[in-house]
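If you are new to this repository, start here. Below is one unmodified record pulled from the training split, so you can see the exact layout before writing a loader.
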Amino acid sequence: MGFIQELPDDKYDRKYGDIYLFKRLFGYIAKHDKKKFITILVWMIIQTGANIGIPFFIKFVIEGVQDGNFSFLFYFETVSIIILYGLFWFAQYRALFHTSILTGEMLRRIRKDSFETLLRNDMNFYDENKSGKLVSRVTSDSDTISQMAQITTSFMINILIMVVVIIILFFTDVRLAGITLAVVPILFGLGIGIRLFSRRTSKNWRKTIAILNANVAESISGIEVTKSFNQEKEAFSRFKEINMRNYRAAYTRAWGMSIFFPIIETLFGVGTFLVLYFGGKITFQIGDLTVATLYFFILMLNRFFMPLLEITRFFNQFEAGLAAVERIFSLMDSKPKVVEDPNPTAVPELTGHINFKDMTFYYKESEPLYKKFALAIPSAETVAVVGRTGAGKSTLVSLIARFYDVVDGAIEVDGIDIRKYVMQDYRDQIGIVLQDNILFSGSIEENIRYGKLDATREEIEEAAKSVYAWEFIQSLPKGMDTEVGEKGTKLSAGQKQLVAFARALLSDPRILILDEATAAIDAYTESLIQEALKVLLKNRTAIIIAHRLTTVENADRIVVIDDAEIVEEGSHQQLMDKKGKYWQLYDMYFRHQSLEYVEQAAELV
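And here is the target side for that same chain:
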């Protein structure tokens, strides 16, 4: 199948056997909805019994007509046909009704477990996987699983019907049953071919859907950049290419099915013709088969071939579902690299003493970052970390928050390796404010409350006032109830930062991390923030990565990092007197923010 363009698997993808996938998928049913599943099986058995019973009564009625026997039994058999048809349709309705509820519950649980996996995974996982692809697995793939589960129940009843019917056919006439079975090996051979082809093409097709979703999500989130550089044509060209890849995968999948199905239906026709031909000869030439029995055999033959045809028609969707199940379970089985210690240590109220002890860390083993890094930060000290872009500043604070784990050495807080702490309790005592803070859809109050879910309205307002966010919040028509939009798009960059400060303050952390948190704030807002920071940083250990001179100057200590190594440390004045690396950075990044520089510029103007 060289015409199928294979796409690479994601790093966490795995291969599972079909039996394992079935057992695990229906484990969702057995664990929570066993009673409902049994109810479906009962209705399916009733449906099967009614469907198979109808030809028997039709045979009896034909024999009654042939014999001219119009007794009470004849009319009873006639009415029984109507009753069985009614029972068949009612049982089918009940089975489908309960199946829809069951698959809906299964879909809900699968999505819940998938999303829980996303929350459990660490930042390594998100560094390696695009968000659009992950969204595709949780939404699109799980929808396909729901469809497959419904098809599976139909598959089960069809198998049951075929087994019962073939037994009846042999009891009716061994010769005609043998003719019927002559085409079955060919059908099963084609069925296996369909399965292999469909599984491969369906999995490839689902990968292209994930890539397409990732591209759309990325394009929408970066639309401002696209428009600012006038690259709409380039973005559209890239989308067309990915969309065409998805089309080709879907076309290949559909093309294969369009060839298989006509062949299978032709074989069904051949089988029916052979039964009619030889059955007719046996009936009218040999005479040991009645017309009623031949008609009964044809009706039963239809009940054998139709389920088989339905199974082959569903193979495409069925294999697409199995491919989706495999992708979903691959996601669920992905293991985070940052895991809690089997016997974690309870986290007391931290004092915030941080110690990097000969720490080694890298994102890729071939590209080492920190090697035997050592730094001690006493509790309640404010340390500003400065350095050129790419020096490793943000990585340092990510390690403190335990978004990643060190490769060697340790990071200790209050004398205990942070890997030993209960992870959630440890992170509860850490507050982080980033340069590009994400606000969630909802009101300003809801976003501030994210720092402490059980906070009162008064506590939220007090936090907003402390960081000088209250002024702009009151100026809004709905105040605290103002909707911020997706990612806070309805607020300015400075306003988003103030909300983020309020959120961090509300959580009352023992260790505060500010990762270039004042970079997006204008000079007026910054003057307010500097006063708020004095309150925010009081009696807390703080690590600040900043591009603002005032923020750096007010730090108790400045640590200069270059190529993931400490090259200088001390106060602002001490480092300026050295005229070393910090002095160079100051001249490059900070001098234009100094009062002296502003006054000189004003004189020139």
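Two things worth knowing about this chain: Residues 594-605 have pLDDT under 50 and may be disordered. The two ends are 73 Å apart (CA to CA).
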